[in-house]
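Blinded run. Sample ID left blank on purpose so nobody reads anything into the name before looking at the predicted structure. Input follows.
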Amino acid sequence: PRVWQMAGRLEDIPEPGDFLTYDICDDSVIIVRTGPDTIKAFHNVCSHRGRQLVDTPETVNGVRGKARRFVCAFHGWTYDLDGRCTYIHDQDDWHGALDDACTSLKPVRVDTWGGFIYVDMREDGESLAEFLGDAGRILGHFELEKMRYKWRQWVVYPANWKTALEAFMEPYHTTTTHHQLTAYAD
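Blinded prediction complete.
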């Protein structure tokens, strides 16, 4: 939660009201296009009782959709695309104790680069440009914002992701684990 994370592509939310969720570990973020050139991100949590506003099945790491508002399925608190709470059931019972500061969705920093959407759950920290550093400058020439993915696959992998990733980066295990490949190796 202390770094910028790539959460999606801009073409995944082309129109105002289009949203996607980005789930990582126990955190969930709603990223929504609020206007032709603006996107916002919020913790996917109702400010009343902490229930997720957009449910994500355990078998996927995020969902996409179109919304005019987000409604908590528990008590019906309702939020507009800018994260403001627009409806509280029996609001008079709160005797004026609620204001925008305590009822609005909690924002998540969001920025874009190369057609990718990044989120940072810290309230402050370096900008996305600072975080990308030389990588942003060097890769900028490839115009990634103009590229589109041909296919995408998400996998829920019940293992330590670092161990799994390392297995694809080093060939030392190939002789033992994938001995059929030794015919193609030097």
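Unblinding after everyone has recorded impressions. Strands lie at 5-9, 18-24, 27-35, 38-43, 64-66, 70-71, 78-79, 85-87, 107-113, 116-120.
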